[in-house]
Known about the structure:
By secondary structure, this protein is α+β, with helices and mostly antiparallel strands. It has helices at 2-20, 76-88, 127-141; strands at 35-41, 46-52, 57-62, 68-73, 97-98, 102-108, 111-115. The chain has one domain (24-141): 2-Layer Sandwich (Mago nashi protein), CATH 3.30.1560.
Amino acid sequence: xxxxxxxxxxxxxxxxxxxxxxxxxxADHLPDNLIIFxxxxxxxxxxxxxxxxxxxxxxxxxxxxxxxxSLGRIPLxxxxxxxxxxxxxxxxxxxxxxxxxxxxxxxxxxxxxxWNPHTxxxxxxxxxxxxxxxxMDIVKQSGAE
Length: 145
C-alpha cells in the first residue's frame, strides 16, 4: 500500500497537469477559431494582421503574404472575453465592409468587418471599433506593437 502512495501520487499529479495544459500554437499550426484584427491601407497598401488564439497567444502578420511571428501571450481571461463578445455579435455586424483608403478590421469565423476610422459617420455598430480598440490596447500593453 505504501508503494502505491509513493509512486501513484506523482503519476496522478502528472496526469492531472497534462489534462489542464492549454494548447500551444505555432505560426505553422494556428487554430481555426481565431480573432483576426488589424489595420491597413495607405499608399503602399500594407496590412497588419494580429491573430488572437483562444489560449491567449498572439501572432502578427505584416502584409498579406508576410511571415507570421509570435508576439507572446495575453492574459487568458482577456482572450476569453474577446471571443465571448465576438460570438455574441449580431449577423448584421458582419455585413459591413466599407474600408476606405485607411481601414481597421475584425475577422472571425470566416466573416470580416472593415471600416474607415477617419470618417465622422462610421456606419459600423459601435461595439466593433470598441472591441478593436480594446484588442489594440492589449497589443500595446504587451509591447508588441
